[in-house]
Amino acid sequence: MDHKTFLRDEVIFREGSYAETMYEITAGKVGIYARYGTPEQQELAILGEGQIFGEMGLVEYYARSATAVALEDATAVDEISNDDFMMYFRDQPDKVLSIMRQLSSRLRETNAKYTEACRTVCEAIEAEKAGERRGKDLRSRLTGLIRQITRRD
Fold first, then answer.
1. How do 21-27 and 75-81 pair as beta strands?
2. pLDDT (tens digit, 9 = 90+) per residue, 101-132?
3. For the whole model, what pTM was predicted?
4. CA 56 to CA 19: how far, in whole Å?
């Protein structure tokens, strides 16, 4: 396992890059962004000490879905390779359980936001069919839900 330290605004990894590693924050904060550095940049999450990120790279070796950026000077992370992760299964099963809990929590939050967005879309469609004048309120609610879905904090 490699321990790395970053300065504020330093990129840890970029959206679209490939790597078979994940990270655990040991100090500081990390921002996760879609379309980082563009006018369409969107903050997805702010993570702190003890939290993990980049796990999809470790699990499925697929292009990174976002960019990770250090938000404070001396932000420190442990870079966890596939071999390190396999060692956790053998020597530190509590660490694997902690990682699984974090992933489960993220998925549960995303599912709740997605379900609410779908419910709002259905209400908007039904209101439109019935000729109700609630469209503006529902559109506003849906816009807020979309912002929540794309932001995990």
1. antiparallel
2. 998 988 898 888 888 888 888 887 777 777 76
3. 0.77
4. 9
